[in-house]
Specification:
single chain; 232 residues; mainly beta; Immunoglobulin-like; 3 helices; 46% strand
């Protein structure tokens, strides 16, 4: 597996290909051995807000907080030695653990509270009566986002501004990470024009994001939208 080593932040190839888990009596237990025959991947990209999301990704059993849809990572090993395997199985029984890993999408090493969502245990490899390791191990973890508990409980508002047109469209509400459908714009009118887009504005007052009418989006904040008119 090709690795871009981040010398500026003093990260080595070993840093990039090692996952550390704190839990089950271990402090920052290192799991190495991600090789060209193994893989480290993301089951859900986390660099964009507008994603189609599945209810299967929701973690709700941590202190009765609905943590919404969160970052997940997966690491797999073609072969794992028996001691790593034993330690991993012990740690995986914890309700939540702290995971220190290199996020390849952002290029940063991060530490997050995560929970195991599933393990594919593979087959034990033995030599005589002694177990040496196991094949095809896959670890799946999902972040709890406990630190975002207050944010996740917040109700956000999607509001519509006619922006030179007339009429009214009722505001809508949504919670953090909810998937919503934007208005078609049928409540606004402007002679000789139709709404081509909805747009948000940045702090300078310039339009910085565009959405089509009836587009499905994920809500992360209050969303005041302005009609962008186009001649018929």
């Amino acid at each position: 597996m090709g690795v871009i080593v981040d010398y500026q932040n003093k990260l080595t190839a070993e840093d990039l290909d090692t996952i550390y888990i704190t839990g089950g009596g271990f402090v920052r237990r290192a799991f190495k051995g991600v090789s060209r025959d193994s893989s480290w991947g993301w089951e859900e990209p986390v660099w964009s807000g507008e994603l189609t999301r599945s209810k299967d990704f929701i973690l709700t059993n941590i202190e009765d907080v609905d943590f919404g849809l969160v970052a997940r990572c997966e690491i797999s090993y073609k072969y794992m030695n028996i001691q790593d395997y034993i330690d991993l199985m012990k740690i995986s029984k914890e309700r939540v653990v702290t995971v220190d890993y290199f996020n390849r999408e952002t290029g940063q090493r991060v530490s997050q509270e995560m929970a195991f969502t599933g393990n594919e245990l593979g087959k034990l490899h033995a030599y005589g009566t002694e177990y040496l390791g196991t094949f095809d191990i896959k670890i799946k973890l999902v972040a709890t986002n406990r630190e975002k508990a207050d944010l996740i409980k917040t109700t956000f508002t999607i509001s519509y501004n006619a922006n030179g047109g007339s009429g009214s469209i009722s505001s809508a509400t949504a919670k953090w990470s909810d998937n919503v459908t934007l208005s078609s714009g049928s409540g606004f009118t402007k002679s000789g024009y139709h709404i081509a887009y909805w747009a948000t504005k940045n702090t300078s007052g310039n339009y910085d994001a565009y959405y089509t009418p009836e587009q499905h989006i994920t809500v992360w904040r209050n969303l005041p939208l302005y009609a962008i008119w186009e001649a018929n």
